[in-house]
Design a protein that fits this description.
Radius of gyration: 22 Å
CATH architecture of the largest domain: 3-Layer(aba) Sandwich
Order of helices and strands: EHEHEHHHEHEHEHEEHEHEHEHEHEHHHH
Shape: globular
Number of domains: 2
CATH topology of the largest domain: Rossmann fold
Strand order of the largest sheet: 3-2-1-4-5-6-7
């Protein structure tokens, strides 16, 4: 089969949708499928995901010129600066800039149709309602290529994206299948968009690049890890406040953060005011799989206090490295983090977050037990040998291939707990 994964662009460091598309494509290619990636905007040749695709010999094509992509990035930076200078009008600036980007990307409809006519993929797989998704889906429909849309978050979230999502919803009926990453997200998708019909679970896949679970750390200092954008919705400042409270009760703890974002300087300033600057390490963005694995092996407990989430890749990556999890009970997170794997707290409960951190800091046996359970859950739900048969059988059904005839996918498919 020829499977084409499509996005508007690579969204930047620690992007779940980017990781899902690249992981799917690379692993499908490795088992003999013809997988490729199409972006509207051209990424830099040095981009880590471009390098990974090239190393795996997965073709990457783009529709827009590098000049267009550079100009769009420049316009985006200008808009961000304008929002900071003219903060009372920031919502208007943001809304207008999104409309401009959306309209610009529709101009690539004909180029996309010509590309699809030339390459004739069996299935187009579109991820997230990004600004190019409407054009991509319409082009596939016009050229009679079946489209799979995969919602990697929650419809109409995060706040402020409602207008963009309203435009996107109009093309969902053109898709052959609409999917989400976990059972809870499928239910939410159906609740918010009942008119699109029943959706299906298509789990994310996290390759285990080490091949073996990480070893449990032996240290008197308990370290918490956080990997996400340093933005409001990911909760880095709430994490710092919970860490400050936990530190008063149990001082032998530290915090390690991977990521960049608008709240970085505020995080530094607040940690300094709290006298915790030496206990908080901001490590920037990891760019390679090796750097990611090294980071995941450098702490004892993974913490993600987001206000909104889909099914976060970083939680699954931490589970693959046998890390217990503390997270907020939002989106699809409760599908990942069961009681044996970690602790869930309400998204607005900083005190509860601090108490969870203290509980795991004090109990090394519980950390080890949860870490072992986390690794087991990763192997049951997200390992390539579990998810790949689900993907292949899913695509085969769409293109009309009987997956029960001699390829063995049927029995493997029934082993995945989320697939009916």
């Amino acid at each position: 089969m020829r499977i084409l994964f499509c996005k508007n662009s690579f969204a930047g460091p620690i992007s779940g949708a980017d990781e899902i598309a690249v992981n799917y494509a690379i692993k499908l290619k490795a088992v003999g499928q013809t997988a490729s990636v199409l972006l509207v905007q051209t990424p830099p040749a040095s981009h880590p995901l471009v390098q990974r695709l090239r190393a795996a010999e997965v073709p990457l094509d783009t529709l827009a010129s590098s000049t267009f992509s550079t100009s769009l990035d420049t316009a985006r930076r200008i808009a961000i600066r304008a929002m900071r200078v003219f903060s009372p009008a920031s919502n208007l600036i943001l809304s207008n800039s999104r409309k401009v980007v959306f309209n610009l990307l529709q101009q690539y409809h004909r180029a996309c149709c010509e590309y699809l006519e030339r390459t004739r993929p069996d299935v187009m797989h579109v991820l997230t309602p990004d600004p190019g998704a409407v054009m991509l889906i319409r082009a596939a429909h016009e050229t009679k290529i079946p489209v799979v849309y995969q919602e990697v978050g929650i419809p109409f979230h995060p706040p402020g994206f409602e207008a963009m999502y309203e435009r996107f919803v109009s093309v969902l009926p053109l898709c052959a299948e609409v999917t989400a990453l976990s059972p809870a997200l499928v239910q939410e998708l159906h609740r918010v968009l009942p008119h699109i019909g029943p959706s299906k679970v298509l789990p994310l896949m996290c390759p285990d690049h080490n091949g073996v679970p990480a070893q449990h750390r032996n240290s008197k200092m308990v370290s918490y890890g956080f990997a996400a954008r340093l933005e409001y919705l990911k909760g880095p400042l709430r994490l710092l406040e919970a860490f400050r409270i936990a530190h008063q009760t149990y001082p032998a703890i530290e915090l390690r953060l991977a990521g960049e974002g608008s709240q970085r300087q505020e995080f530094i300033d607040n940690s300094r005011k709290a006298g915790l600057e030496q206990k908080c390490q901001l490590l920037g963005v990891y760019k390679t799989l090796q750097e990611r694995d090294a980071f995941m092996n450098s702490f004892d407990v993974f913490v993600l206090p987001s206000l909104t989430e889909g099914t976060p890749n970083v939680i699954v990556e931490a589970m693959a490295q046998s890390k217990p999890i503390i997270a907020t009970a939002v989106g699809g997170v409760p599908d990942l983090v069961t009681n044996d794997v970690g602790l869930l707290v309400p998204s607005d409960d900083i005190q509860g977050l601090a108490e969870a951190m203290v509980l795991l800091a004090r109990d090394s046996d519980l950390r080890k037990k949860m870490g072992i359970a986390a690794r087991k859950r990763y192997e049951e739900l997200f390992a390539p040998d579990v998810v790949l048969p689900v993907l292949v059988a899913f695509y085969e059904r769409i293109v009309g291939v009987d997956s029960s005839l001699g390829n063995g996918h049927g029995s493997r498919l029934r082993m995945h707990p989320w697939i009916d």
